[in-house]
From TrEMBL:
Enzyme Commission number, as recorded: 2.7.7.6
A biological process term (GO) from this entry: DNA-templated transcription
Stated name of the protein: DNA-directed RNA polymerase subunit beta
Function per UniProt: DNA-dependent RNA polymerase catalyzes the transcription of DNA into RNA using the four ribonucleoside triphosphates as substrates.
GO molecular function annotation: DNA binding; DNA-directed RNA polymerase activity; ribonucleoside binding
Keywords from the named record: Coiled coil, DNA-directed RNA polymerase, Nucleotidyltransferase, Transcription, Transferase
Keyword Nucleotide-binding on entry: no
Residues annotated as domain DNA-directed RNA polymerase beta subunit external: 533-598
Subunit structure: The RNAP catalytic core consists of 2 alpha, 1 beta, 1 beta' and 1 omega subunit. When a sigma factor is associated with the core the holoenzyme is formed, which can initiate transcription.
RNA polymerase beta subunit protrusion domain ranges (all copies): 22-431
Reactions catalysed according to its record: RNA(n) + a ribonucleoside 5'-triphosphate = RNA(n+1) + diphosphate
Limits of the RNA polymerase Rpb2 domain: 272-396, 455-523, 1075-1150
SUPFAM superfamilies in UniProt: beta and beta-prime subunits of DNA dependent RNA-polymerase
Length: 1173
């Protein structure tokens, strides 16, 4: 039975090593969206259920008709995954929604289920199959809704960003010492104007922002002097209710005297501390000319929001209140409200804060607290927020990303329902003819087919597949654009620890904008990234695990996983080094609150596959993790001798391998299925055979167990592509030597031994598919046939009687795969034509040959042919009568020009394949497999490859595999120990072998000194060609080498003649278009420097856009004649036409003064003139 491969580990400390399900972010999110397995009554108001619940019920304007949503049902899957792949269909299930129409007048209730359409369903691999292609919905990381405080150029701002509705931005201008507000990025106004427009009086503003004290009035001079210069906290009235002084008025001596005269006993004044703290607000109130006039404030705000429009006052007030206080127009969303409460209400108890989480509109208290916090930020009492902190960025997974277009479609549906309810008669009304479902399915199809975040899956190998599903993108709708994204948003942030990988990101313009989820990270209920920690109590590490978001972790003292502990998990260091708010500090162990769960915690899956990554420069580690995704799965998969322990989890969670789900015994095994007998009965596991992937690699599964084996849940039943014994296996363990060799490994070039080609070590299977549809045209149906016009029997040799290529045929460029004819405009059928047609069949008919041929640059063996027809009940695209798919496979051996790489960013191109006997060989006679340039190591600072090479050689000799996870790799002492163990084993084997031939111990020892493994890894190699020793010892060992999908067969291209551009008449560009080689300006300079005038003229005329000249040259080559002088190039004609377009009549004359025609029309015109003369 196939158990997980045992590896020798060098970990110095115990860690939580079991990785969670790496596809959980995709699978859980879609499960939350659809809730297909949940009883409709118990579904949470999330995902699809949330969209329906928030849109319905809908009432008619008179309130007589109500349309209610009852529930939805997801039917059985329409096709299997194999059918969807083969027939270019979508893997989907029918979605039905039950609606109820209630007529309140008559009490009549109509309930009807409406078929919405076929909804794409996620596979168990976390992907969608759309039109036969596997796609992934990438997670988006974006700025979270809520409140955010920032500072720029002495201006402090507080932005309240909702999920739906108007943005509200409060500003403090420290130069003018005034407070402003801006709605939806429009013109700013004084903040007090908005507060007054929303219905707050000056007294309300004072109550919310200022502290007051009551002063009892007596006629002493002390009381007068104490009041003068103060600001009133409330309006003061006399006995007849007349205003003596208004709130916020500054008190002068005559005003105070009036108080005495009018018999005022006490007044409330604003305290001086409060005045000083809120000085900006005082200045704003003083400057605001509309503070005493609500009508003026309302009209001013409305004129900014709707310039040039007029409306009644009551309508303006209603609209203004709806803008922030009505959940129909404004929605902070669950996340926005949570962020706002956590930021502004942290003085309340937890239960009081929780009570505030249910309201998703703004309140006066929210606005007041936001302004008070902004004042505190401006006074440097509170810090500004960090936009790049992961507490302010959240993840939108597949559920939310699908909900967004559906919600938008429902707003269209809602409008159409209101329209129909107001125009139709009640008798005609039923849910079916009121609810238009077209916009909903259109939105779903557009999202999966065209959204920037719905991507064609990278399926080169299991790790590329898994990484694509765990990717986080800051781009896409509602995200950033790569042109405007600055350095800060791309940079590594301290909150990324354990949540986002600091290493894995693209090298191009998307650097830092597309990142990868860390291994143990997960997305919480609010969409924030969390990472696990072990709880530490009184200096002892407990086994309790807590998941914390970046905000929750902010004030915690966290020790790394390598802190010194005893067997009972007590921390031994009195002052351990901790992480605190992104800094490293030494604190007493009693203050420690948490400990990391694993040394791999900060890395993504790809980065965690690199052994000794701690010895690599970050740039090279980045390249190493990216290049593993480009590794071609090899024919003979071999897992690395020096691994990290993550190989098993990658193979498991990429779903490339098949694992037993239950305990049982294997009763049948063949290449296509495995049968397992369990207590419940028999379970059959179907294996995928040579299925083509999105990147034309071959997905093939093969059993690794035998009949009679007993298995437990999680045991490996079958290996997939790029796996061996249930572990990821992308490359080969090759014996490498770091030495220059006759310039063949100059500048990262690599020399290979022919042995690797003989043994098929770097051979991969490349699979391509060609589709040939027979369509219904206006002139008749296309036909798949062997009877092709003007095609000889030799070209038809591989076709069967239906005109389809036979399986097993080797085909080259230009060979026919599927014979097809398309009708031309048929002439009237004369008796002679009918007779010829009866005798010669298709060949005499007026059809043209539109057969599917092998394109330029492709060849291979036909491995499968699939035929789908409407007659057989196959569902095909509209207008397609028959679809033939031909699969070609080709074994690609490694050759010069192919790109290979290690796991440490050490990449190179194969420059030469050497005969095995000519390669340098070790003292024991073994030739090395790969020669690398030693200069590729020091400047790149990726020393991890040297540690791997040294340990790998010991592993090869011992026959064991190692686990060197990040920060837990073998030390040099441990590597030396493994070399000693290998030497002991080798010496024992040598003694046993040599003693049989009667060799003396001295002779054995003498030979042993030559062949034993060296601790520094350096050996005296001999030149395979001469047998001479090389001058210096060479570093030799075993490195895991990958073959990347940049293969020379896909890049090499040659052309004599081919297609030309219609306008410029120059050869097309690129291999796909069978294009030519481009000579740019600088290439012309280079040729000019060599003085090759005739070659240059040839290249720029007859080989480019001299249409007549190239025909004559071709003719001359065939007839063996000399080539005549070139004509006017087409680019000159294009220039002339451009100038004529600018109304300049350009005419061309030869040296004899005779006008030269530039096209056929001009030639006819000139000929006519000559004829008339």
């Amino acid at each position: 039975m196939a158990k997980q491969l045992e590896r020798v580990s060098f970990a110095q400390f115990q860690t939580q090593t079991d990785a969670p399900d790496l596809l959980a972010i995709q699978l859980d999110s879609f499960q939350e969206f659809l809730q297909a397995d949940v009883d409709p009554k118990n579904r949470e108001k999330k995902g699809l259920e949330g969209v329906f619940s928030s849109t319905f019920p809908i009432e008619s304007t008179d309130g007589n008709i109500v349309i209610e949503y009852v529930h939805y049902e997801v039917g059985e899957l329409k096709y299997t995954q194999e059918e969807a792949f083969d027939k270019n269909l979508t893997y989907s299930a029918p979605l039905k929604v039950i609606f109820r129409l209630i007529d309140r007048k008559t009490g009549e209730i109509k309930e009807k289920d409406i078929y919405i359409g076929d909804f794409p369903i996620m596979t168990n691999r976390g992907t969608f199959i759309i039109n036969g292609a596997e796609r992934v919905v990438v997670n988006q990381i974006y700025k979270s809704p809520g409140v955010l405080f920032s500072a720029k150029n002495k201006e402090y701002s507080s932005k309240i960003v909702p999920e739906k509705g108007s943005w509200l931005e409060f500003l403090i201008d420290t130069k003018k010492d005034l407070m402003y507000v801006r709605i939806d990025s429009r013109r700013k106004v004084l903040v007090t104007m908005l507060l007054r427009a929303l219905g707050m009086t000056v007294e309300d503003i004072i109550l919310r922002f200022f502290d007051m004290q009551e002063v009892v009035l007596d006629d002493s001079s002390e009381a007068v002097s104490r009041l003068v210069g103060q600001y009133l906290g409330e309006t003061v009235y006399d006995a007849e209710n007349n205003v003596i002084a208004s709130a916020m008025d500054k008190l002068f001596p005559n005003t105070v005297n009036q108080f005495f005269q009018k018999g005022v006993h006490s007044v409330k004044i604003i305290t001086s501390e409060s005045l000083q703290k809120n000085k900006t607000l005082v200045n704003t109130l003083e400057k605001d000319d509309a503070k005493d006039n609500m009508q003026k404030a309302v009209k001013k705000i409305y004129s900014i929001l709707h310039p040039g429009e007029a409306a009644p006052f009551d309508v303006i007030v209603r609209d203004l209140n709806n803008m922030f206080f009505n959940n129909r127009y404004y929605d902070l969303g669950e996340v926005g409200r949570y962020k706002l409460v956590m930021k502004l209400y942290n003085d309340l108890e937890k239960q009081d804060r929780d009570a505030l989480l249910t309201s998703y509109t703004l309140s006066f208290e929210d606005i007041s607290r936001a302004l008070r916090h902004l004042i505190a930020v401006a006074n440097e009492e509170e810090p500004v927020d960090d936009v790049d902190h992961l507490g302010n960025r959240r993840v939108r997974s597949v559920s939310e990303l699908i909900v967004a277009p559906i919600t938008s479609a429902f707003s269209t549906v809602e409008k159409s329902i209101y329209e129909k309810l107001s125009t139709r008669e009640i008798e005609d009304l039923s849910p079916q003819n009121i609810i238009s479902i077209k916009p909903i399915m259109s939105a779903i199809n557009d999202f999966f087919g065209m959204s920037q975040l719905s991507q064609f899956m990278d399926q080169t190998n299991p790790i590329s597949e898994l990484t694509h599903k765990r990717r986080l993108s800051a781009l896409g709708p509602g995200g950033l654009s790569r042109d405007r994204a600055g350095f800060e948003v791309r940079d590594v942030h301290y909150t990324h620890y354990g949540r986002v990988c600091p290493i894995e990101t693209p090298e191009g313009p998307n650097i830092g904008l597309i990142v990868s989820l860390a291994i143990f990270a997960r997305v919480n209920h609010y969409g924030f990234l969390e990472t696990p920690y072990l709880v530490v109590k009184d200096g002892k590490v407990t086994q309790e695990i807590v998941y914390l978001s970046a905000n929750e972790e902010e004030n915690m003292y966290i020790v790394p996983v390598n802190v010194e502990m005893d067997r009972d998990f007590n921390i031994l260091e009195e002052f351990p080094r901790v992480r605190y708010k992104g800094e490293f500090e030494l604190v007493p162990k009693s203050k420690v609150q948490l400990m990391d769960v694993s040394a791999l915690q900060l890395l993504s899956v790809s980065a965690a596959l690199i052994p000794f990554i701690e010895h690599d420069d970050a740039n090279r580690a980045l390249m190493g993790s990216n290049m593993q995704r480009q590794a071609m799965p090899l024919l003979k998969a071999t897992s690395p001798i020096v691994g990290t322990g993550m190989e098993y989890y990658v193979a498991r969670d990429s779903r490339a391998v098949i694992l037993a789900q239950e305990e049982g015994q294997i009763t049948a095994v063949d290449s296509t299925s495995i049968t397992l007998k369990t207590k419940k009965g028999s379970t059959s596991y179907k294996l995928s055979k040579f299925r083509r992937t999105n990147q034309d690699t071959s997905f093939n599964q093969k059993p690794v167990i035998n009949v009679g084996d007993k298995v437990s849940p999680g045991d490996i039943l079958a290996d997939g592509f790029g796996t061996e014994q249930g572990e990821l296996a992308l490359g080969k363990n090759a014996v490498v030597a770091f030495m220059p060799w006759n310039g063949y490994n100059y500048e990262d070039a690599v020399l290979l031994s022919e042995k690797l080609i003989k043994d098929d070590d770097f051979t991969s299977i490349y699979t391509t598919v060609f589709e040939c549809p027979a369509l219904e045209t206006k002139l008749g149906a296309e036909e798949i046939t062997r009877e092709l016009p003007n095609v000889g029997e030799d070209a038809l040799r591989n076709l069967d009687e239906d005109g389809i290529v036979r399986i097993g045929a080797y085909v080259k460029p230009g060979d026919i795969l599927v014979g097809k004819v398309t009708p031309k405009g048929e002439p009237t059928e004369t008796p002679e034509f009918r007779l010829l047609h009866a005798i010669f069949g298709e060949k005499a008919k007026d059809v043209r040959d539109t057969s599917q041929r092998v394109p330029h640059g492709e060849d291979g063996v036909v491995v499968d042919v699939k035929v789908f027809t409407i007659k057989n009940g196959d569902e095909l695209s509209p207008g397609v009568l028959k679809l033939i798919k031909v699969y070609l496979a080709k074994k690609r051996k490694i050759k010069p020009g192919d790109k290979i790489a290690g796991r440490h960013g050490n990449k190179g191109v194969v420059s030469r394949v050497m005969r095995e006997e000519d390669m340098p060989f070790l003292p024991d006679g073994r030739p090395v497999d790969v020669l690398l340039n030693p200069l590729g190591v020091p400047s790149r600072m990726n020393l991890g490859q040297l540690f791997e090479t040294l340990l790998g050689y010991a592993g090869l000799k011992l026959g064991v595999k190692y686990q060197c996870a990040a920060f837990q790799g073998a030390s040099l002492e441990q590597i030396e120990t493994q070399i000693d163990l290998a030497n002991d084993k080798l010496l024992k084997e040598l003694r046993e072998e040599r003693s049989r031939y009667g060799e003396a111990e001295e002779q054995i020892k003498e030979y042993w000194d030559i062949v034993k493994l060296k601790k520094d890894g350096k050996y005296h190699l001999r030149d395979g060609r001469t047998g001479e020793f090389f001058e210096k010892p060479v570093f030799v060992g075993v490195m895991y080498v990958l073959k990347l999908h940049h293969m020379v067969d896909d890049k090499l291209h040659a052309r004599s003649v081919g297609p030309y551009s219609l306008v410029t008449q120059q050869p097309l560009r690129g291999k796909a278009n069978f294009g030519g080689q481009r000579l740019g300006e600088m290439e012309v300079w280079a040729l000019e420097a060599y003085g090759v005038a005739n070659l240059l003229q040839e290249m720029m005329t007859v080989k480019s856009d001299d249409t007549d000249g190239r025909v004559r040259v071709y003719e001359g080559i065939i007839k063996g004649k000399n080539v005549t002088a070139p004509n006017i190039p087409e680019s000159f004609n294009v220039l002339v036409q451009e100038l004529r377009g600018l109304a300049l009549d350009i005419q061309v004359y030869d040296k004899n003064g005779k006008r030269v025609p530039l096209n056929e029309k001009e030639k006819e015109m000139l000929d006519m003139r000559v004829h008339l003369v």
